[in-house]
């Protein structure tokens, strides 16, 4: 989803599919969850046309989706954010946790109005790694789901901003988590971590620090590995829990 999503590289230990797709590449097991049969049919046709995916099943409610997940152990699950049945965030948490340490990637498919800030934050904390809008193109949806299946994340650019707004309401200023783990970061990585916590994109950080976007991305991937972060949302949450988010002065520096 070029220009619309933020992704973090897969971490060591993230699950990877082993089944070939006939052309030497991985093939990801996929479950679909949406109340509308026509929507499910369209999504199934979309992903069955892509050799990277194997559609393992579809469900019209949360209970059935959980049953299918237990049966098939998918690599990724694409779920309508308004799926009937148990609360979708509880369903997402179960999908992530009920895989004996091998997390299923969960992607929420939202309506044009999207999710509220508090729901996005709760979903991220539940382990959701993708937030895609139904209005996005077929190519963007497939690309985003593929990124999550590979262990990364996919979300619209405004999601990080919404999470920041929710965090400012939840944790106005106080730190409630020790900051010692930041000692794992180099000075440059700490700079980038703080700028990510402000909601800046890789390109914006590159402009501030006078670096290439690729260099910033490489630094951020190392930050993810060192701090066991899944994505930028995790980085923002950690920054607020430690008490280093917000009000960080932009510092221009030579590479």
Automatic annotation (TrEMBL):
InterPro entries: CheY-like_superfamily (IPR011006), NreC/VraR/RcsB-like_REC (IPR058245), Sig_transdc_resp-reg_C-effctor (IPR016032), Sig_transdc_resp-reg_receiver (IPR001789), Tscrpt_reg_LuxR_C (IPR000792), WalR-like (IPR039420). Transmembrane segments: none annotated. The modification 4-aspartylphosphate is found at residue 80. Signal peptide: none annotated. Residues 1-14 have a biased composition (Basic and acidic residues). Pfam families: GerE, Response_reg. Residues 1-27 are annotated as: Disordered. One of its GO terms (molecular function) is DNA binding. GO terms for biological process: phosphorelay signal transduction system; regulation of DNA-templated transcription. The keyword Transcription applies. Keywords: DNA-binding, Phosphoprotein, Transcription, Transcription regulation. Residues 29-149 form the Response regulatory domain. This is Response regulator transcription factor. It comes from Streptomyces mobaraensis.
